[in-house]
Each structure stands twice: as C-alpha cells, then as structure tokens.
Amino acid sequence: MAKLYFRYGVMGSSKSAQALITKFNYEEQGMRVWLLKPAADTRNGVGNVHSRIGLEKPADAVTDDMDLYEIFRDREKEFNDVIIVDEAQFLHPSHVEQLRDIVDNYNVPVFCFGLRTDFRTKMFPGSARLFELADSISELKTVCTCGGKAMVNARIDGEGNVITEGEQLYIGGNESYRPMCYKCWKKAQQKEVEEA
Ligand SMILES: [Zn+2]
Fold first, then answer.
1. How many structural domains are present in the chain?
2. Which of 81, 133, 140, 193 could form a disulfide with 31 if both were Cys (CB 3.0 to 4.6 A apart)?
3. Neighbours of ion ligand 1 (CB under 5 A)
C-alpha cells in the first residue's frame, strides 16, 4: 500500500536536497515523478526546486485554487508512479486532502518535504494537515550554533536581531532565517530586550 509521507525540518536541514534525491532514486528505477512546489514560495523562482548544495529541478507550481486530485486524474498517464512536494508547508490544507486521496485511490506514494513551524514557532496550516493525515512522519535534523538540535526558524533582521512579529508568509527582503534551538532563540530575544 502506498503512503503519504511528511519529512519535516527547519531551514537548512536539506529538505530540498532530499526531495531531489528521492526523485532521482525513483527515476533511476524507471519510474515517473511529479515534482510539485507551492507557488507561495518564490525565492528561487516559481517552478524550481532548488537546494543550497546546488541541485535544481523544474517543478509544477501549485496555486491555492488548484485541485491536485483532478489534475492527477486527468493526467494520470503522465506521472502515475510517485509525487514529491517541496516547501509543503505552503500547501493549502485542501491540497493535503487531495494528495491523501491520490495515495489511497491510485496507490501512489506522496512525499512532502517542508517546515513544521514558522519564525514564531507556530505551525503552518499545510504542515498541520500533514501531521494529521500522513502515514509516515519523520524529522530531518540540523544543528544550532550551540550544538543542540535546531527546531526554530529564527527570522533575522538587517541588524542581526531575532524578529518575532510579522507576516507568516513574508519571504525575502532584508530578512533572513537561521536554524536555532528553542533555548538559544529565547535567549536571543531576552538579550535584545535587555539591550534595548
Ligand atoms: Zn542553541
């Protein structure tokens, strides 16, 4: 039986690289892969899965109004072996339900790679639905500067301060993100309050 997989991790935990390696492994076995990426993520151009280590592959952009189940049903012969989604936290919850139905009705495995939480440590709606519906959930890990396991995607402003307010979906600009453990993330905020 095919499964719905959710592989989550903070930024810098090699999610995109793992997505592309998974695609490579299936294609090496002669299988067809439908690679998807939500259109909400425009950092490296819509329609590309890009990894920091230099891997890049074209992907179909998913917009909120798309019904993935209908598209898959109509184009089944093009890609009916496996589906891989990068930046899956930006999926609409209904997309996750559509993918779940593809898994069950077509016996096609679906691998979703994405963040668990945003820079405020709040879960993305797409990720929440994946936690609710996935058959297999595992964490891709990376380290904080202290050596502990990173679990927060800290948003950093131009001065290097940790930001805890703003839009969940804000991407780019002068801000960047840093994987941190919860303890260091809290400590960085306290230090900023003391210095202010
Ligand atoms: Zn730390």
1. 2
2. 81
3. 144, 146, 148, 181, 184
Helices (H), 60-141: 68-74, 93-106, 125-133
What is the distance in A from the centroid of ligand 1 to the CA of 150?
Answer: 7
Residue 146 inside a domain? The answer is no
Low-confidence ranges of the chain (pLDDT < 50): none
Q: pTM higher than 0.85, yes or no?
A: yes
Instruction: Could you list the beta-strand ranges (E) of the chain.
Output: 4-8, 33-38, 48-50, 56-58, 60-62, 82-85, 110-114, 136-139, 152-156, 162-163, 176-180
Cα 140 to middle of ligand 1, angstroms: 17
Distance CA 83, CA 35 (A): 6
Domain with residue 127: its CATH number is 3.40.50.300
Distance (angstroms) between ligand 1 centre and the Cα of 112 equals 27
pLDDT at 68: 97
Residue 86 sits in which domain range?
4-139
Residue with tokens 């590309």: 48
Of the candidates 28, 87, 175, 192, the residue annotated as catalytic is 87
Whether residue 147 is contained in a domain is answered as no
For residues 96 and 166, state if they share a domain: no
